Amino acid sequence: MTAAAKTKIDTLAMGLPPLSVRDLTALVAQLPPSERAALTWVPTAIEAELKRLRDEPLSADLVNACTLAVFIQSSKALAAIVSMLGAPGFLAALSGIYHAEGGRLEEFLPDSGARRSARWAMRAFVGVLQAILLVPEIRGASLDPSLLAQSDLAEAFKDDAAGVVRAVVLLMAAISIAEQDGDKERAAELADLASLEVSRGVDHLARLGLSVELEPEGPSDQRGCRVLECVEEARAALEPGDVAALVQARLRELR
Amino acid sequence: MSAGFLVDTSVVSWYLEREARTRHPTLINWLDDLLPREGLCISAVTLYELRRGVEGLLRQGQGARKAARIENLLREATVLGLDERGFVGWRLAADLWANCKHHQPSVVLSEGDLLIVATALMHDRQLVTVDLNLQARLKTLGYEGLLHLLPA
Predict the structure, then answer these.
(1) From CA B146, how far away is CA B7, in angstroms rounded?
(2) pTM of this prediction?
(3) Chain A: closest CA distance from residue B105 (Å)
């Protein structure tokens, strides 16, 4: 793994926010009072970004802007939390949070396809966390606040490497909808987008040298049955012209 | 005896149609019976072709839902390539291309079809396709044993 790749993964690992404002607040509450007092505004600032993801038309620019803002806000709290828990303790705490929040979100989502997307994203997050724990250089890392001052951070958050962080923030927004018993369709859209983003992110991490092993969706002997379920879910989502578009994209000649 | 089946992109596309059950009942019944036992086995070329389609949908502003549903399906598929065992699949593909070119009269396969057929050869799987032109061309080349033909 190159030094540049390690820095990218380091930043990603220590800047992964918890999945809800409530979880972040609970972690901040574990800090000593003096540090806690300086961070009380962080959950409110993050909530403002999640509101944008709940209410505004979804676009790549909006997702990038909100992700960067949540990353910067949460990193200020996470630097103190990582320092208190240590990198392995922090990543283990995140893993537990992701499992629990994932279950709650699944109960809220309106259809089996969106629930499958959310499960996949959660499994990918946990896989990323486990993979990071296996990298000795990162296990001892802590968040470097100077990273937040880098002028190219905004640019870095537009590429696939940040897909995992974008996905976490999208799911934070979906979870915030569930907590408010809000628009289920919007939550489903956010979960679907998160699954696509995390998929790109995991592929990009592999290119950087971090191989992520994912827990299977279920028993391997039921994989064929899951294929049938996925086909039904895809049929329900696709419109008549979409299959024609898939056919048109077929490989005719190598150019 | 082959190691199983490899379904091509045309089959996956038909299978995904909302009206598939009424438009292609024989194919759908066969797949509904096969897949729970053997799972979905596709070529890396089919994965690539479907991902091209997904990207196309996304860039037309079609939203994440459709793309996510197709990605969910692809994650459950077994994907076979040409690189295993010292890239021998690519030699099979080159041989197949040469067979097409030197056949009298010459036979034309699209690059995608050619690589999918080579994948089936490489992994000793029967190819399932609903592309009648491809079926005819493979028969012309003497590869009819590679095909798994469904009843009309």
Answers:
(1) 12
(2) 0.90
(3) 20
